[in-house]
Amino acid sequence: MTARSQVAAPAALAVIFIVSVALYWYGLGPGDAEHYMEAALRWQDGPWLGENHWSLRHLFVLPMAASFKLFGTSEAAAMIPNILYAAMTVAITWTFGRRHLGDHAAFLAAALMATSAFFVARPLELDVYGAEAFFAALSCWLFITARRSARRGLILIAAGACAGLAWTVREQSAYLVVAFGLLLLLERKQPLQSITFVGAGFAAVIAAELLLYTIAAGDPLYRYRIDLGHRDIGVNAQMTAEQARLPARAARLARYLATTPATTPMLLLAAGASYYLHRTRALSPSAGRSAIVVFSAVGVISALVASIAFNVSATRYFPLLTYAAFLIVAVAIVQIFMRGRPRAAVAVAASVLAVNVAAADFTRDGDYAEARALADIAMVSAEPIFADPLSVHRARYQLRLKGWTMAAASARVRNARDAAAGDLIFKTDRLNPSEPNCVIRQMDLRKTGWTHFVLRESGAAKLLGARVEEIVAPPQPAYLLRLLKTPASGGPASGAPCSRGSL
Length: 503
Hints:
The chain is mainly alpha-helical.
């Protein structure tokens, strides 16, 4: 690669990434965003240990706390760390890919990664797996680099340390150590010594963490007592014995692999790309064989460990499987191009871009617009607003990002189950004819994407099942209501406009 292209390629990747961020930016999304923001906001009052597994993910929370300190509290400031993690994931794909995939495949893999729904669009909505994916991918690249390096031991220690950092973000990243151990045994090149190096790097991070918690909490296992027990609450706690058994876990894994918009199309494309590379014998050491084999193996092992050992089957819990798919597709596209089929290569690259843009659009339901609207109403209201628990939870943090204390936000936005006659209600579902109320304002808040419109209007949603039909159905309006006393016979109908006297 010439000196000019060495500058042009990173600059082009930066432009692609910035454009992608701008197009995908829609603010917070569904998940655990508020838990992480609460942890980061608590750091504004000084250091604290953390009280739940969200607040103990310090490599995700502390950068957010620093961003709040530098730029003030806002949704944008909360997302800056994840933008940086996504950018660094693209950067290491380019940097290490040049050595192990070749210049062209490295550029294409990084460019596709920069436009990814999985690695850019979804993490931007404040999901922790963006940080995990960076450390896990870096660990794998270091592991691959060590195989041909004279400094094999040091690089394997670094790979183990990065695996340890990924573990501190989410503990199912233990799949890295498992996968590296199996690969080293199969490699048969001083396997015990190499495993010791990886283990030493991983253990160094764990030891440092234990020491820090010993000093700060007087308990070296402080994080583990909280973090490793958090699956006893929530979805997993509601599972029956049958649902927790191995066949059920395997079935859930298969279902997620087959139905996740940001992952499933990439896995299908990677399957086709793998067949092409195998049939044409195009995968060679110079074309990324080692990297493809390692990332594919680690990706498969990660899916099995996360779903079977940790009982978490969503693809975000094993991001390296999707990462491997991007690498395979990029290498195949370059091989197609180099073998004299540029139109086919461009068509495959365009299909990757299209499925990622479509996946990002399809998974965005716009429901955070309701929480933002509720927060805006609460800011100008002289009385409390009552709403459903999810809207209340999200709106309170919208107010917190505007400088409100949690006590003030909780006093202004309350759970609808505590409402009484005369109270203001923010309602996000259909009006109940039996509920006596009058409508102060009707609001069309959710703005769903073009994929919802196409699937709905074309009739394709009916072919894809009831769940898809539900997702793409036109969103319900939200209402600001006044809750009335039970009307007498002939009284005002539920949902009628409020009179002046009722406001």
